[in-house]
UniProtKB/TrEMBL annotation:
Organism listed in the record: Bacillus thuringiensis T01-328
Annotated Gene3D superfamilies: P-loop containing nucleotide triphosphate hydrolases (3.40.50.300)
Protein name: Conjugal transfer protein traG
Source organism, top-level taxon: Bacteria
Mode of membrane association: Multi-pass membrane protein
GO cellular component: plasma membrane
Family in the record: Belongs to the VirD4/TraG family.
Keyword terms, alphabetized: Cell membrane, Membrane, Transmembrane, Transmembrane helix
């Protein structure tokens, strides 16, 4: 269970960039790069993008590069998470000043220098190429846009919940598993995390299906998307719902009206609804939805009687007729007034069925809350990757290792020793300086 309302009390954890980290451990750079770009695409297109596509492309480039940089350059798995990605951007993606001599100052962006210092062919450097080629002001806009997209990971509780992963996303396709996402309806900013989790789960299930000879997962997985109309846009959902059924993944979409889907997916809404093979109708207050349901139910033939009469001063005539005409099985008005405790089931290639629905109030269920008080009190501080601190720690580790082996010559070759030697311009005794440095260590 992932609790996006109370992340500290969540019983499980999920790391969005774990797929990238795992691919790198397998020495599969292509898979790692693909995973990073997939995450970037999901984040950037969590809301509909309009205007020049260069802004979305640039933002994707920055996110993918930051993810790959953290996944590759950090030596600790505990630092490979989205909080590190966000922290790297907001700390080193801003313009800073430094002295270059004679009291002169220059402006620079540490993040750009970090990327530039990477070796040729580095995955992060390649991913950053699109944003790196943009003009300075445009690149700054990319950074600001990405910071806004990732701001949720500045929340300590969200950072902690997404700092590591304790379950396999493809597990539902291998054995019977139920994963629950608690999504707050009052805090819509966190809905994006649920969408990202669903997206990543789908990719893992597809990869699992592709690895099997039959191209289908062993256990059919159903994604119950309650309040689908209030969830952020799922990237390429029209494609997912079109091909997922053949792989054993089924989507159950719950909406109050079809207008909710159109609002989120625009022209793609028809593709999404057209690939829903089973429709279960309870009630709606949307006129357009009622018209669609009415048309799906079809028509039937009814006999209509006609009677006419003509009266004159000295004459009277009357006629009677009976005709056959077409009528909707349920008119839109009747659809909107559909009675309680009944539902309509519409299946492809089948006639619609009117079925009774049980009154669940007659079957009371006692819900036993999970005791999560201890979880909410735990320490949620997260280890965040700092490239400059990591460099300093690496040099210090080398010094300490040399000290343990009493290798004075190795110590003198370190940058730390050189900085100590540069404290004064006066002549010093090198041997004495070495011994002094050993005492400090």
């Amino acid at each position: 269970m992932l609790d996006f309302r109370k992340p500290k009390a969540s019983t499980h954890h999920w790391n969005p960039i774990k797929a990238v980290v795992d691919a790198l451990k397998e020495d599969d750079e292509s898979k790692a790069s693909e995973a990073a770009w997939n995450i970037a695409n999901m984040i950037v297109y969590q809301k509909e993008r309009t205007g020049d596509p260069v802004w979305a492309t640039g933002a994707e480039s920055v996110i993918a590069a930051l993810i790959l940089y953290i996944a590759i350059e950090s030596k600790k798995d505990s630092q490979k998470h989205m909080a590190s990605v966000f922290q790297l951007l907001v700390e080193y993606g801003v313009v800073k000043k430094r002295e270059i001599g004679d009291g002169m100052m220059e402006e620079y962006v540490p993040l750009l220098e970090l990327i530039e210092s990477l070796e040729r062919g580095h995955l992060a450097k390649l991913a950053f190429a699109t944003a790196g080629m943009a003009p300075e002001k445009m690149r700054g806009s990319f950074f600001a846009s990405v910071a806004a997209d990732l701001r949720l990971f500045a929340d300590p509780s969200i950072a902690y919940m997404t700092s590591f992963q304790d379950h396999d996303l493809k597990q539902p396709g291998e054995k019977k598993t139920a994963t629950f996402l608690i999504i707050p309806d009052e805090v819509k900013t966190r809905h994006f995390l649920a969408t990202l989790y669903i997206d990543q789960t789908y990719f893992e299930l597809v990869n699992l299906a592709n690895s099997r000879p039959e191209g289908r997962i062993a256990i059919r997985t159903s994604c119950l998307l309650d309040e689908f109309g209030n969830m952020p846009r799922i990237s390429d959902f029209d494609t997912k719902i079109t091909v997922s059924r053949s792989r054993g993944v089924r989507y159950n979409i719950v909406v109050q009206g079809l207008d909710q889907i159109k609002e989120k997916y625009g022209k793609l809404a028809n593709t999404i609804t057209g690939n829903c093979r089973v429709w279960l109708y309870l009630l709606t207050g949307d006129n357009e939805t009622a018209e669609v349901i009415s048309k799906k139910l079809g028509t039937y033939t009814v006999a209509t009687d006609g009677y006419s009469a003509t009266t004159r001063t000295k004459d009277f005539s009357a006629s009677y007729s009976q005709n056959l005409s077409k009528r909707e099985l349920l008119t839109p008005d009747e659809v909107m007034r559909f009675p309680d405790f009944e539902a309509i089931v519409i299946r492809q290639r089948q006639y619609a069925t009117r079925v009774p629905t049980p009154d669940i109030s007659k079957y009371p269920i006692k819900f036993i809350p999970i005791e999560r008080g201890d979880l909410e009190k735990k320490d949620i501080r997260v280890d965040v990757f700092d490239p400059f601190k990591a460099q300093w720690e690496g040099e210090l580790e080398a010094i300490e290792q040399a000290a343990k082996t009493n290798d004075l010559e190795e110590i003198t070759e370190t940058e730390e020793f050189e900085e100590t030697m540069d404290i004064t311009n006066e002549p010093i005794d090198v041997a004495e300086q070495k011994e002094s440095y050993m005492d400090i260590i």
